[in-house]
Amino acid sequence: MHRDKKAVVEVVPRLLRLRDAPYYLGVDRHRFNREVRPFVTEIRVGRQGVAFDRLELDAWAEEYKRRNGRPASQNGGQLWDASAYRGSGIATGSGTSTNRSSEQRFTRALEQATSSRRS
């Protein structure tokens, strides 16, 4: 006996409601309103509904990835944008100052900060 199997096709709507658009992009609603919404077209649906074009959201995501993405680290290697920095913000001491009074205030503040006794 031959049975016809119906193919299950999942359809993603072209217009995504405001409640669904942040989830589609994987961000929370606040981040969506701050970082995405100003750059995509808002489409009125009915009297109060707001929707966004899924293809435009995809384009925004691609642009965001292009600007902020980086290749994944492979086998614990150094990332492509990681660079060694000269100097350290941890070391104590004073640098060269172009203003003598600023240097004196900095030296006093540094002594107070590293002193074991608090005033």
Descriptive report:
The N and C termini lie far apart (92 Å). The radius of gyration is 28 Å and the shape is elongated. It is α+β, with helices and mostly antiparallel strands. The chain has a domain at 15-68. The chain has four helices and three strands; from the N terminus they run E-H-H-E-E-H-H.
Quick overview of this protein structure:
This protein is of the alpha+beta class and 119 residues long. The protein is built from four helices and three strands, in the order βααββαα. The chain is elongated and about 90 Å long.
Total strands: 3
Strand proportion: 5-15%
The spatial strand order of the largest sheet comes to 1-3-2
Radius of gyration, rounded?
28 Å
Order of helical and strand elements: EHHEEHH
Mean of pLDDT: 80
Can you tell me the residue ranges where pLDDT is under 50 for at least 5 consecutive residues?
none
Largest sheet: 3 strands, antiparallel
Number of helices, where a helix is a run of at least 4 consecutive DSSP H or I residues: 4
- Percentage of helical residues? 25-40%
Principal-axis shape equals: elongated
- Helix-and-strand structural type: alpha+beta
Distance between the termini: 92 Å
